[in-house]
Write a structure and sequence with these properties.
270 residues, alpha/beta, globular
Length: 270
């Protein structure tokens, strides 16, 4: 059941690949709440995923764009504002990829060219999205921009590799650009640090299933689902969170504040 939280709002959603993607869930929820938007992903991801199915469900236009390309981003925002009939009220950045992690490179044996690609795709692209949007003046006053991140930006997790540095860059950019856009047009910028989630990207990390179970036992509320994350992000796009900006918001069932849980104690006591 929708509450019309985003009635009349327009946006762009980056990163929907298939029904397991958080961006996919956000698109469905945003549509349910009355929003109209375009969907975008890199050309290779569009060929691999099912984004056209999502577009049909949401009556949304799909626009291919490499988020690391300024030219592609300019075209994306131009086409989006034309398709939607006006400027944007929200943007979701749900982008992350590490060639080193994907190819199983140990953290002490990184390919540095790949490392730079990780930073560009997973972190710097967030700055590029906002810089191009600012220069084109395509975001309405009191708009909202959100990006997905992970607690590995603050803590060490095995096998997360150079993605940890990329997420730290992403969160820093949110603070710096958040201050800038707030002064310019009251636009807010936040990152959402989500629980381990069984997305296509997440499950590709070595040992993911074990860590997913560990986090679920550690978090007092258990792991937050992709659907719950979508609900949360929609509130950030709504007018009810106008004074929330430059924050790294923990959406993890309490995992980030837990020291140890009864479940873990029981497991270790066996």
């Amino acid at each position: 059941m929708g509450y019309n939280l985003l009635a009349g709002k327009r946006g762009v959603i980056f990163g929907a690949l298939d029904e397991n993607s958080i961006a996919w869930k956000v698109a469905l929820k945003a549509r349910e709440e009355g929003a109209s938007f375009t969907l975008t992903n890199a050309p290779v991801a569009l060929r691999m995923g099912k984004i056209n199915e999502l577009a049909e469900q949401c009556d949304a236009k799909v626009i291919a764009a490499d988020a690391t390309s300024l030219e592609d981003l300019e075209n994306l925002f131009q086409e989006s504002t034309e398709a939607l009939g006006g400027n944007l009220d929200f943007i979701l950045h749900s982008i992350g990829m590490s060639p080193n992690v994907r190819k199983g490179r140990d953290y002490g044996n990184l390919n540095y060219d790949w490392f730079l690609k990780t930073l560009d795709i997973s972190g710097l692209s967030f700055h590029k999205v906002m810089q191009v949007a600012e220069k084109m003046d395509v975001i309405n006053e009191w708009g909202s921009i959100a990006a997905l991140t992970y607690i590995a930006a603050q803590r060490n997790f095995p096998d997360y590799g150079d993605m940890a540095q990329a997420k730290a860059v992403l969160e820093s950019i949110a603070r710096s650009y958040g201050a800038r856009l707030a002064r310019l047009k009251n636009i807010r910028v936040n990152t959402v640090s989500q629980s381990p989630t069984k997305t296509t990207a997440g499950t590709g990390i070595s040992g993911f299933d074990v860590f997913f179970d560990y986090a679920d036992k550690m978090a007092p509320l258990g792991n937050a689902s992709a659907d719950d994350c979508a609900n949360y992000i929609v509130t950030l796009f709504s007018d009810f969170t106008r004074m929330v900006t430059m924050q790294n918001l923990m959406h993890d069932g309490g995992f980030s504040s837990a020291g140890i849980s009864e479940h873990i104690i029981e497991e270790l006591s066996k």
